[in-house]
Amino acid sequence: MERAASILMRQGVRASSVGMAARRAMSTQKVNVYGEYQFKKSIQRGRQQYMIKNVLTAFGLGGLCAGIYFYSLNVVRQEDFSDVPMPPEPTADEKTKFDQAKN
Fold first, then answer.
1. Which of 7, 8, 43, 48 has the fewest other C-beta atoms within 10 Å?
2. Which residues, other chains included, contact 9 with Cβ-Cβ below 8 Å and sequence gap of 6+?
3. Could you tell me the sign of the dihedral formed by the alpha carbons of 28, 29, 31, 35, in that order?
4. Alpha helix (H) ranges present in 34-80?
5. Residue ranges of the domains in the chain?
6. Under DSSP, is residue 11 helix (H, G, I), strand (E, B) or coil?
7. What secondary structure letter does DSSP report for 89?
8. Phi and psi (nearest 5°) for 61?
9. What is the pTM of this model?
10. Which residues of the chain have pLDDT under 50?
11. Cα–Cα–Cα angle for 59, 61, 67, rounded to 5 degrees
12. Which residues, other chains included, contact 1 with Cβ-Cβ below 8 Å and sequence gap of 6+?
């Protein structure tokens, strides 16, 4: 930390901000992870009590979303749209006029 502070002081950084900058430069030593991005054992033990609740919440939310999705598909599949008025079929004259206008 002293080395980082002396480098920053040589570059003209104010003394009051040297401590903060040096801490930021050396912050990797204070992170609670090991080399392979694994939490320390104490943090794992502390988070273990929430793991079951988090898994149950995730399954609950996933089940709710899946239930809504499949319910919506089931309702739409059962709909026959009988209440929607359909236009009458075009007559032969209308079909020929349409074909002539298209070409």
1. 48
2. 15, 18
3. positive
4. 41-78
5. 1-31, 41-81
6. coil
7. P
8. -65, -40
9. 0.42
10. none
11. 95
12. 22, 23, 26
For 22, counting Cβ atoms within 10 Å of its Cβ (0-12 exposed, 13-18 middle, 19+ buried), the class is buried
Length of the chain: 103
CA angle 35, 43, 62 (to 5 degrees): 100
How far apart CA 55 and CA 50 sit, in angstroms, is 9
- Reduced to 3 states, what is the DSSP secondary structure of residue 22? helix
Return the structure tokens found at 9.
Answer: 């002081």
CA angle, residues 42, 27, 40, in degrees to nearest 5 = 15
81, two tokens: 């749209």
Which of left, alpha, beta for 28 (phi over 0: left; psi -120 to 50: alpha)? alpha
d(CA 51, CA 70): 28
- As a whole number of angstroms, the distance between CA 37 and CA 31 comes to 10
Alpha carbon of residue 74 to chain centroid: 27
CA distance 99 to 90: 12
